[in-house]
Amino acid sequence: MKKKEIYNGIVESVEFPNKGRVIVEGEEKPVLVKNVLKDQEVEFRVLKMRKGKAEGRLLQVTKNSPIEIEPQCQHFNSCGGCSYQNLPYEEQLKLKESQVKELLDPVIRGEYLFEGIKGSPREREYRNKMEFSFGDEIKDGPLSLGMHKRGSFHDIVNVDACQIVDEDFRKILTATREYFTEEKVPFYHRMKHTGYLRHLLVRKGIKTGDILVDLITTSQINRQEDAWKEVLLSLELKGNLVGVLHTINDSVADVVKDEGTTILQGQDYFYEELLGLNFKITPFSFFQTNSLGAEVLYDVTREYIGDTQGKVIFDLYSGTGTIAQILSPVAEKVVGVEIVEEAVEAAKENGVLNKLTNCDFWAGDVLKVIDELEDKPDLIILDPPRDGIHPKAIGKIINFGVDKMVYVSCKPTSLARDLVALQAGGYQVEKVQCVDMFPGTVHVETVCLMSKVSE
Ligand code: SAH
């Protein structure tokens, strides 16, 4: 096989998150190609050859897969947000379930119960948060507001008909783009570092209907955004617009960052409800993006940790304290640790709001803070970010010697890696349940119960 040459092959399987293994006649090893489905016949160009392993870029699908359907979103072929809008939901679930099992089986020692996957209560319009980017779809083209184009760092495609958010998101998105197009306001150019419009953050409580909108710009143009706010206020929305904000971010990194926020209308927070508890959410604090899916995830977490009566529980990587608060009514005490201070403040406020008096929240890096905690845990919940748990933190977590831990993972490759260390430290995996919080996309959550092996 040669670099830059074009080949044809059949997709044998798709590994997590989105890596197709393509079999080419006469070649021993499969070639990795993204954005394909099992049993498709594809044409691709070889991009890389490393240690006999080839990686290719899809040029075209020459024969569809028998399980493939018409994409459920008109933006599917250009937008980089979703990967599986062309698979029926049942097939998406089967795929994610087998991907997780394929990653975990080789690392888990001994017998364990694999409980399959639970689907999201909503297959469409499930997200409570979206961060849209301003840019253009073609160089010097008209202003666009949406998602990164598939496989592109620079181009932004409009996603006016995005299917993973509801009608209110779509109306706010379209009205905002039309307003700034008419005003001829430039977007912030990621390479040149010039311009103004960066992101549009929209968050909506799926249960409460509260909507919070935040426009993120540089300070390169001195504008008052009251006229934009009026445009939003004039929209006919199903939910209630509780706050319209304008945040300045002059940093060069392409992430939403807060360097000062002005409230143009209403308030700078909103509420969402989960499993009967209320949560106050601020613009930039972490909150599971699929509220109904989060209820399924937290239900599994609660069931897996089991009897909490009289127990002290550590909720490590606690975000706005959702898991801690769901477990606290029965437990003796719950201690949450979270690195984002704003989220910790929100967690404390939420504890008060929910009249919970046995939750403690600490701000800081799990790696450091767990040395300083006075309480000794009986049970531990781990819900780290995508990169998983710092290897040194795993050692400290093992040293607490608790009987049971539940690891909630948003990236099964990180979970597989961390399980190796946790098993070496004396834990065994009892059972695993996948939960799909992200229909249409490659992502999947995995909950894993571990128990201490008796000596
Ligand atoms: N359990 C929460 C949040 C899980 S997301 C929920 O279900 O809503 C992971 C969280 O870990 C994020 O809030 C992130 O800010 C936090 N985090 C990332 N690195 C961390 C670290 N080193 N120490 C503590 N918290 C961290």
From TrEMBL:
GO biological process terms held by the UniProt record: methylation
Catalytic residue list: 410
Protein origin, superkingdom: Bacteria
This protein's record includes keyword Magnesium: no
Annotated TM spans: none
Pfam families tied to this protein: tRNA_U5-meth_tr
Keyword Iron among record annotations: no
A GO MF label: methyltransferase activity
Record EC number: 2.1.1.190
Keywords attached to this entry: Methyltransferase, S-adenosyl-L-methionine, Transferase
Binding residue positions for S-adenosyl-L-methionine: 288, 317, 338, 383
PANTHER family for the chain: RNA M5U METHYLTRANSFERASE, TRNA (URACIL(54)-C(5))-METHYLTRANSFERASE
Similarity-based family: Belongs to the class I-like SAM-binding methyltransferase superfamily. RNA M5U methyltransferase family.
Name the UniProt record assigns to this protein: 23S rRNA (Uracil(1939)-C(5))-methyltransferase RlmD
Highest classification ranks of the organism: Bacteria, Bacillati, Bacillota, Clostridia, Lachnospirales
Gene of this entry: rlmD
